[in-house]
Amino acid sequence: MNSVTVIERKPWYHSKTLWFNLIAAGLIAMETQFSVLQPYLPGSVYAWIATVLTVVNAVLRVVTAAPLAFGIGRDESV
Questions:
Q1: Which of 14, 6, 5 shows the shortest CA–CA distance to 64?
Q2: Which pTM does this prediction carry?
Q3: Ramachandran category for residue 59: left, alpha or beta (phi over 0 → left; psi -120 to 50 → alpha)
Q4: 58-70 pLDDT, tens digit each
């Protein structure tokens, strides 16, 4: 007998990893333009922030179980 494995895909907008990275990128872009935090934080804080962002991104990627579905409408899984 042949067996078919169905992989459930979640919509991209349910991805915690994508949302985290989108928000982080937006905040970083705003900081480079407006320098809201830079005058108040020592230089080593930026290194810690970069490390924390990397670790959070890695943790979110590891806990992700389902692949993402991009596009509109119902995605056919294989």
A1: 14
A2: 0.67
A3: alpha
A4: 898 888 888 888 8
Cβ neighbours for 70, distance < 8 A, ≥ 6 positions apart: 12
Cβ atoms of 7 and 75 closer than 8 Å = no
Q: Which two tokens stand for residue 48?
A: 């810690």
Residues 31-58 as b or e (16 or more Cβ within 10 Å = b): eeeeeeeeeeeeeeeeeebeeebeeeee
Contact 68, 11 (CB under 8 A): yes
* Reported confidence tier of residue 1, pLDDT bands at 50, 70, 90: low
Tokens 């992989």 sit on residue: 7
Say what the pLDDT of residue 73 is.
56
